[in-house]
Specification:
Layout lengths: L8 H23 L11 E13 L11 E4 L5 E19 L4 E24 L2 E4 L2 E3 L4 E6 L2 E12 L2
């Protein structure tokens, strides 16, 4: 004995939901912008790069006004605006006291290089040309008298 399939309101709702999801997915895929954000107009930014454990004879090789180039992509990524240095430190264990202490590394400095550049905001990140810069980005930089790499520690827009 054959039973005839019944078509009810729940079947209609299910078909409509599936069709709406398919149309929504097609629109998203066709636009090619899954969560993408359009690039904004160029603006001036300043970012700071921490170069760790730089020997004392090299800290004067980075000067304000120096042009900064990325050593990986060989593209300009700004101009040095400020350079400051602090004694490099390291955490070591004091076996006698049974604790961790901070010690200064002789003849070695942590150098903070502040760079200014024109950038756009795209997908939540600052872009200098095709170079993405955010806090935490590893920056390999070259100025006329020094080449090194360090992490970006701060980014801000210049008014």
């Amino acid at each position: 004995m054959k039973t005839k399939a019944k078509f009810n309101i729940i079947d209609v709702l299910l078909i409509l939901i599936i069709a709406a999801a398919a149309v929504f997915g097609a629109v998203i895929l066709r636009s090619g912008r899954l969560g993408a954000e359009e690039a904004s107009a160029e603006r001036s930014i300043r970012y700071t790069v921490l170069l760790s454990n730089v020997k004392s004879q090299f800290i004067r090789n980075i000067q304000p006004g120096d042009s900064v180039t990325d050593t990986v992509k060989l593209m300009p990524i700004g101009e040095v605006k400020d350079v400051r240095s602090d004694f490099a430190t390291v955490q070591i264990e004091d076996y006698n006291a049974g604790r961790i202490v901070t010690a200064t590394v002789p003849d070695t400095y942590d150098v903070y290089v502040t760079v200014e550049a024109m950038a756009t905001v795209s997908d939540g990140a600052y872009m200098i040309g095709g170079y993405q810069i955010n806090v935490g980005t590893l920056v390999s930089l070259r100025v006329p008298n020094y080449t090194g790499s360090g992490f970006c520690t701060a980014v801000s827009e210049v008014e």
